[in-house]
Write a structure and sequence with these properties.
By secondary structure, this protein is mainly α. Helices cover about 70% and strands about 0% of the residues. It is globular and about 60 Å long.
Length: about 140
């Protein structure tokens, strides 16, 4: 869910940046960036699953999959309890969308805008994108 929201915002960011830079084939660049975001996110999700299973110690037995009628609390077990476990879970949840966003930022900066790599150039246009979204919700009174 978080990754999907970040992907939509990222695609909008690339679209607005490409339109402002008057780049040819804007939608193709948006599609390339969306695919890159999705691929990076899915690879990191699979890598996270591998890491999580190695931490848990391979507890995949018959009790691993729960039936649909069992509606009890799903406890955070297997090395993910306590403050460290919560932080680890948050990290594994947020790392794939953030890495996808960074991959798109590099593609946007290098290929779409053709600017040099600086922190300001890498994340430029984000403020303007959110201002544009804010302006789109305003109505005009007649």
């Amino acid at each position: 869910m978080i990754g999907g929201i970040v992907m939509i915002i990222t695609a909008l960011w690339v679209y607005q940046s490409a339109m402002r830079a008057k780049v040819n084939n804007v939608l193709i660049w948006v599609a390339i960036c969306a695919v890159a975001f999705f691929v990076v996110q899915m690879l990191l999700v699979q890598f996270n699953i591998y890491i999580l299973e190695s931490i848990r110690g391979g507890e995949a037995d018959t009790g691993y999959e729960r039936d649909l009628l069992s509606v009890g609390d799903r406890k955070n077990e297997g090395g993910f309890q306590g403050a460290g476990g919560v932080l680890l879970s948050i990290f594994f949840e947020l790392m794939p969308p953030i890495a996808g966003f960074l991959a798109v930022a590099v593609i946007r900066n290098k290929f779409v805008l053709k600017e040099e790599f600086t922190l300001a150039n890498l994340f430029s246009g984000i403020k303007e994108m959110f201002q544009g979204i804010k302006q789109s919700f305003k109505t005009t009174e007649k």
